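Progress against Task 2.4 (sequence-to-structure conversion) is shown through the following example record, which the project officer requested during the mid-term review.
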Amino acid sequence: MTIDRQTLTRFDGSQGPRNIGPSDGRLVELGSIGARMMAWTEETGGGFSLVEHPMPAKHLAVGLHKHSREDEYSYVVKGRMGAILGDDVVYADAGDFVFKPREQWHTFWNDGDEPCHILEIIARAASSTTSTSSETSSVRMVPRTWTR
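Structure tokens generated for the chain above:
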């Protein structure tokens, strides 16, 4: 599904109440994982975006990268998420909240044997994201899939 983000406008309540249920939102593919866009930057007046990422077991969500204009906050709804944040490796279970600040190399993955779902708040997002390839970084990579 392709979304014309030029047509998105700030949600101001004039359209009536807005309730995004568990099967609502816009589904998009982000490489190796899907994303359910619950609130686009344009709809929140530029303050944030809200995305649900469902991840299959033992699956890398995205390669090592960093953002120059966005901070990311990940809330684990279900399962177990692993993440590299700079030089640190962290693990988060359902109910945990992980902060990934701009300019920090990071990646995340499902560290469990069951599906993992996270809600990601992308704060101070711009219309386009500037990312830097991990190929120029000395930070270690995590394999796309693995077994224990």
